[in-house]
Amino acid sequence: MRTHVVIIGSGPSGLLLGQLLTRAGIDNIVLDRVSKDYILGRVRAGVLEEGTVGLLREAGAAERMDREGLPHGGFSLAFDGRDHRIDLLGLTGHQVMVYGQTEVTADLMEGREAGGGQTIYEAGNVTPYDFDTASPYVTYDKDGTTHRIDCDFIAGCDGYHGVSRRSVPQQALTTFERVYPFGWLGILADVPPVSHELIYANHPRGFALCSMRSQTRSRYYIQCPVDEKVEDWSDDRFYDELRRRLPAEHAESMVTGPSFEKSIAPLRSFVAEPMRFGSLFLVGDAAHIVPPTGAKGLNLAASDVHYLFEGLREHYAEKSDAGLDAYSDRALKRVWRAVRFSWSMTMMMHRFPDAGAFGQKIQEAELDYLVTSRAASTALAENYIGLPY
Ligand SMILES: Cc1cc2nc3c(=O)[nH]c(=O)nc-3n(C[C@H](O)[C@H](O)[C@H](O)COP(=O)(O)OP(=O)(O)OC[C@H]3O[C@@H](n4cnc5c(N)ncnc54)[C@H](O)[C@@H]3O)c2cc1C
Prior knowledge:
Blueprint (H helix, E strand, L loop, with lengths): L4 E4 L3 H12 L4 E4 L4 H5 L6 E2 L1 H9 L4 H6 L1 E3 L2 E5 L2 E5 L1 H5 L3 E3 L2 H14 L3 E3 L3 E6 L7 E6 L2 E6 L2 E4 L7 H4 L6 E16 L9 E3 L6 E5 L5 E7 L10 H10 L3 H6 L5 E15 L2 E2 L2 E3 L5 E2 L7 H22 L3 H28 L6 H17 L1 H12 L4
Parallel strand pairs: 1-2, 1-12, 2-8, 5-14, 12-19
Antiparallel strand pairs: 3-7, 4-7, 5-6, 9-10, 10-11, 13-16, 13-17, 14-15, 15-16, 17-20, 18-19
The structure holds flavin-adenine dinucleotide.
The site of flavin-adenine dinucleotide has 32 residues, from helix 1 and helix 10.
């Protein structure tokens, strides 16, 4: 088999890149090691920046999002028993879209199938070869046979645990990492959200986030120790703990109901540099991870796709490699800004084991400054809605 671009991974970055390339007339094949149903069962991000929304429209996968997504012009910071709204729209003129990653993925898959794009699910042993040459290829196992796809470029869109980054010689990579000493215990439940906008709560008992996927489906999180067991958290125990961390008005009005998803996610910041090795490009979580506090993971994957798509389009349409040559630097510049923002939100909102009462007071003073200074609120809002590409 031969194609222009082999895309390893059919998460949001692989599927979005695939759709943009197909619409630009650039052949591509997507490979994933798991099944379509497994991918559609994953519950992850839910807040889309305007840049991501724009890319989904460009990819022709935005019809349902534009109909069902919830535009949010603000969110709340809750601390010291009170709620403080950050007016994203008023401060920046921009807003975010609440629409689940699972839905984004389903829409992109549907678009790909409708356009005849080829995706090979349950491809075992996917391996990129010769990406230090202009004739790379990828092999994979399926139905007891090893297959080979020759290509011009390989896009490594296979997440943090994927094969692409691991295939790069170690001495060619520099990695940066911070692991946080806690996780997020999250539930998904078909109950109306406690507020029509997101609430990020700083409380002496730990961080909490009230998010949603729709007007009838809530996504709630509480900070917990990383070694906590999901089985030890009944729904009642979860809701009791969540209520304790919220201002009274929300705790009292919260509607509860059985969860149908409950999991603990560890929190880390990670960046691998550079993001290009010859004809192999790392995209999204394959190159970087951020803690979900700033809602940046999926959005960073989308901005990487934007830079890579522009480079590939220029390569094929204009016979110029300027965009591909600039890919790693352009993507990393934006990545580091989002890594900084996600780190700062994480530091400001969570209880750290060694912070003590002093640490709590410092966080509250920082939050108080943030919500009373227009300049500080604007800086927060600018980062939250997403820095320009
Ligand atoms: C539990 C959890 C909760 C999260 N919550 C949030 C949130 O609230 N907000 C936010 O912004 N972000 C969140 N994120 C991050 C966000 O989901 C990711 O940034 C986003 O999924 C990145 O997309 P991606 O396409 O780069 O990688 P992924 O979504 O990880 O997709 C990678 C794909 O590659 C495939 N793959 C992996 N290895 C191989 C291989 N060897 N061969 C072939 N295919 C392979 C995988 O099966 C997968 O389909 C969360 C992540 C996790 C794990």
